[in-house]
Amino acid sequence: MSKIVKKMLVAILTLSLAIIPICSVSASAAVPENEIMPLYNNVNTATANLGVSDSGKLTINYKYTGFSGVTTRAVITTYIEKQTLWLFWTRVDIGTTNDEWVDTIYDYRYTGSRTFQLPSTGTYRVTVNFKIYGSGGAADEIEKDIKFTY
């Protein structure tokens, strides 16, 4: 291989490793100050973030804040997928029905977490779906996909 090709491969590899999140990523329904923010009927903010330890222990943190007297219930559905053959996503067996966690909370605010030991290294995606109900109108549905490599 020529020196130029080797240098280009090293540069591409270095760049790709620099942009892959390693320890912690997050997703939030909160929008930065200068962007358009969607208006929700029953919730003010809903966030999900995660961290992965060096041993592959995944921790997913959830938080939503609704409106007292308006927000009545939330259903949070979470599942983990692993990327295979660079194109396909396969659900990870977490030992539950449909390989997903479904949490129902009867409060206008919630902070909680889940942990899971990842079975092997690779590229993963965690999908968190918040469905927030209340007297403010139709249920708010907020979905977050968080992709990471372990």
Protein model, in words:
11% of the residues lie in helices and 53% in strands. A hairpin with a 4-residue loop joins strand 2 and strand 3. The chain has a single domain (23-149), classed as Immunoglobulins (Immunoglobulin-like). The chain has 150 residues and is mainly beta. The protein is globular, with a radius of gyration of 19 Å. The longest helix is centred in the N-terminal third of the chain and has 17 residues, at 3-19.
What is the structure about, briefly put?
The protein is mainly beta and 150 residues long. The protein is built from one helix and nine strands, in the order H-E-E-E-E-E-E-E-E-E.
Q: Overall pLDDT, averaged?
A: 86
User: Number of DSSP strands?
Assistant: 9
What sequence of helices (H) and strands (E) makes up the elements? HEEEEEEEEE
Helix content: 10-25%
| Most strands sheet | 5 strands, antiparallel
| Distance N to C terminus | 31 Å
CA-based shape: globular
CATH topology: Immunoglobulin-like
Question: CATH superfamily, please?
Answer: Immunoglobulins
Q: How large a portion of the residues is in β-strands, by DSSP E?
A: over 45%
